[in-house]
Amino acid sequence: MVLTTSPDKHFLLSHPAHFFALGFGSGLAPKAPGTFGTLAAIPLFGLLLLLPETSHCFIIAALFLLGIPLCHIAGANLGVSDHGSIVWDEIVAFMLVLEFTPASWTWWLCAFLLFRLFDIWKPFPIRILDRKVHGGFGVMLDDLLAAIYAIIVLEGLQWLMMQSF
């Protein structure tokens, strides 16, 4: 089934890969689905916080790897490799950012804004890789790189804050 229109609830529920790739429905938002997908990461990260911290990176890595076939299947069925409704990449990448973010609402807001900035802006080399690497891996890769940029800036901000005290 290749969908030529925007996905809907029927598409979302027609295959488990669609349900996860479309972020449990957050990717169906008519405007800014990537932003809604990023927000969907917050309660999932809250669940992750219930587990031992030593398991967090392993789980996030597993979710990244799982995202490759999930996003590939959804993209193939949508007829667009990186359709805007596919937000699993934002969810997993933002969970990674939160793993490196101090647990306060101000830092989480900063993390959210930085991640969305880098995900939308796609600075070098993200934009190039986004054009050249396709399929599920390409979908996941550009958001992983945006997460790394956000983490670097967050770490720099934390370092600057420590220097001022």
Could you describe the 3D structure shown?
By secondary structure, the protein is mainly α. It contains 8 helices and no strands. α5 crosses α6 and α5 packs parallel to α8. The protein is globular, with a radius of gyration of 16 Å.
Architecture blueprint of SSEs:
Blueprint: H1 9-13, H2 16-21, H3 33-48, H4 53-78, H5 88-99, H6 105-121, H7 126-132, H8 135-163
Which of globular, elongated, flat, extended, rod-shaped describes the shape? Answer: globular
- List the total number of helices: 8
Low-pLDDT segments: none
Series of H and E elements: HHHHHHHH
Helicity, as a percent range: over 70%
- The structure class reads mainly alpha
Determine the strand fraction and express it as a percent band. Answer: under 5%
- What composes the largest sheet? none
Give the number of DSSP strands: 0
- What value does the average pLDDT take? 95
Name some characteristics of this structure.
single chain; globular; 165 residues; 8 helices
Briefly summarize what is shown.
This protein is mainly alpha-helical and 165 residues long.
